[in-house]
Write a structure and sequence with these properties.
This protein has four helices and no strands. With 109 residues, it is mainly alpha-helical.
Length: 109
């Protein structure tokens, strides 16, 4: 049962770290001193989103397999379904994190 709780909290934690990284990259690119170029920020953000997205897709496949193996009347079944939803929602949120990077033409606001 503790493993299932990890499988619920893990994707959400990964999404929150991605969220922090994306907005840190935006802040670094749009800082008055310009710590990095906007194109470099877009590249790093896209690559990190791609890598985390692939990891989340693998996690989603594992969650689907896990939820199919657990019988419908088992007490772990609700946690397995919650883990499946957690991965799916976190994957969508990770993709949504990239939206500000994709629409950021300049750092002028």
């Amino acid at each position: 049962m503790t493993r299932l709780v990890f499988h619920i909290a893990g994707p959400i934690t990964l999404w929150s770290l991605h969220f922090i990284a994306i907005y840190a990259l935006i802040s670094a690119a749009c800082a008055p001193r310009g710590l990095m170029d906007v194109d470099v920020m877009r590249g790093v953000a896209t690559i990190s989103t791609l890598l985390i997205g692939i990891a989340m897709l693998a996690w989603l496949v594992l969650a689907l397999r896990r939820s199919r193996r657990i019988p419908d009347d088992a007490e772990e079944r609700p946690l397995a379904i919650a883990a499946l939803w957690s991965v799916g929602i976190s994957l969508m949120a990770i993709l949504a994190n990239l939206w500000p990077v994709a629409t950021l033409a300049t750092c002028s606001g």
